[in-house]
Write a structure and sequence with these properties.
CATH architecture of the largest domain: 2-Layer Sandwich
Number of strands: 22
Helix content: 25-40%
Largest sheet: 9 strands, antiparallel
CATH superfamily of the largest domain: ATP-grasp fold, B domain
Shape: globular
Number of helices: 14
CATH topology of the largest domain: D-amino Acid Aminotransferase, Chain A, domain 1
Radius of gyration: 20 Å
Length: 425
């Protein structure tokens, strides 16, 4: 088959890396791709949100299957357009993608379906939101309703911090239109985990687990980011917990979406808090996670392309997933200043040396080539240095060995990715 992957980040690099090894793949395209992806696929200069151009390219190149990576083209209806052209794709419709596109939509669905989640209220008025915070007390969680690239959430420890977050989102437009409405939630205590399930809109099967590190600095300090690293599997989710998550959260969601006339086809990515009362849903994403994908895919024995194609054809119950016993860990290298202001165009060297290490690959997240052909940073999160080994601790050691091979003075990373799992071992 001719395959087209949509996106330009490390998640898409990992997907392309897997697809390129599949016996089903005869030709691999990526739009727009990145320099790392360009080594294994033909990159098309089409932005991920250019819906008309993407549909036209899929038709012109006689693409047999489209894998939609990021959330933006999903919320813009790319899957609907491809389906209308008879082109198989992996990803939910515009209506179903509201599970990620609107936190209020997701919370209301949970309330109707009895899915365990934090108590919440929705606000379109800043003063009403502030009054609610004063009445509830802190800590409390302030969330922009719309898409904010992983940065629209503030866990406010003080009333002042919460009020500032409300002003930033609603008055200062820190997240653009995404902050026109806020969801304000109770603060949940527990350990976070990411749980992934494949669904064709009718049934679902568990994919695997990972744990992301959202805070920018070691020890989970500082503002939230799109993710500074991850590892898989997440030790907090054993078989019994996974079964409970499927029963209490995933299956009710699939049913509720189907009953609402917007069946969800694709990857259900549940951000969870494992509390003393059991798993509770923090949020849904409507696609593969980033950086979680980078640590899940190297552990998969099964052919990912054949699995995703089967899901797109409504055959989720036609296969079983096989996993390696190894653990996998990814360290994100980001530009100095991220998630605030950061410099682009700084030169990165040493990736070939890192890739030369066994069981290690550097996924490109935000890179480009300059006029001289040098690899340069082109985003906030720039590289995903990923290694696999028999244990999280061994994978961590190998990943940081690879980080040390990369010469990029203008970049930084957390030094403690995987600390929770290693502390428990």
């Amino acid at each position: 088959m001719k395959i087209l992957v949509i996106g330009s980040g490390a998640r898409e690099h990992a997907l392309c890396w897997s697809f390129a090894r599949s016996p089903l793949c005869s030709k691999l395209f990526c739009a727009p791709g990145n320099p790392g992806i360009a080594e294994i696929a033909e990159c098309l200069p089409i932005k991920a949100d250019a819906i008309d151009d993407l549909v036209e390219a899929a038709s012109d190149f006689a693409i047999d299957f489209v894998m939609i990576g990021p959330e933006v083209p999903l919320t813009l209806g790319l899957a609907d357009r491809l389906q209308a052209e008879g082109i198989p794709c992996f990803g939910p419709t515009k209506a179903a993608a509201q599970l990620e596109g609107s936190k209020g939509f997701m919370k209301d669905l949970c309330k109707r379906a009895g899915i365990p989640t934090a108590a919440y209220e929705r606000f379109t008025d800043a003063e009403a939101a502030k009054a609610y915070v004063r009445a509830q007390g802190t800590p409390i969680v302030i969330k922009a309703d719309g898409l904010a690239a992983g940065k629209g959430v503030t866990i406010a420890q003080t009333e002042s911090e919460a009020l500032t977050a409300i002003d930033a989102a609603m008055c200062d437009k820190a997240f653009g239109d995404a902050g026109n409405e806020l969801v304000i939630e109770e603060f949940m205590v527990g350990e976070e985990a990411s749980f992934f399930a494949l669904t064709d809109g009718h049934t679902a099967i568990p994919f695997t687990t990972a744990q992301d590190h959202k805070a920018v600095f070691d020890g989970d300090k500082g503002p939230n980011t799109g993710g500074m690293g991850a590892y898989s599997p997440a030790s907090i989710v054993d078989e019994a917990m996974a079964a409970r998550i499927m029963k209490d959260i995933i299956f009710p969601t699939v049913k509720a979406m189907k009953d609402a006339g917007m069946p969800f086809l694709g990857m259900l990515y549940a951000g969870l808090m494992i509390t003393k009362d059991g798993p509770k849903l923090i949020e849904y994403n409507a696609r593969f996670g980033d950086p979680e994908t980078q640590v899940m895919i190297p552990r998969l024995k099964s052919d990912l392309l054949s699995v995703l194609y089967a899901v797109s054809k409504g055959m989720t119950d036609s296969f079983t997933l096989q996993w390696k016993d190894e653990a996998c860990l990814c360290v994100v290298m980001a530009a100095n200043g991220y998630p605030g202001a950061y410099q682009k165009g700084t030169v990165i060297r040493g990736i070939a040396d890192a890739n030369a290490l066994s069981d290690t690959i550097v996924f490109h997240a935000g890179t480009a080539r300059d006029a001289a052909g040098e690899l340069v940073a082109a985003g906030g999160r720039v590289l995903g240095v990923t290694s696999w080994a028999p244990s999280i601790k061994a994978a961590q050691s190998k990943a940081y060995e690879a980080v040390a091979k990369i010469n990029w003075p203008e970049g930084f990373c957390r030094k403690d990715i995987g600390w929770r799992a290693i502390e428990k071992a």
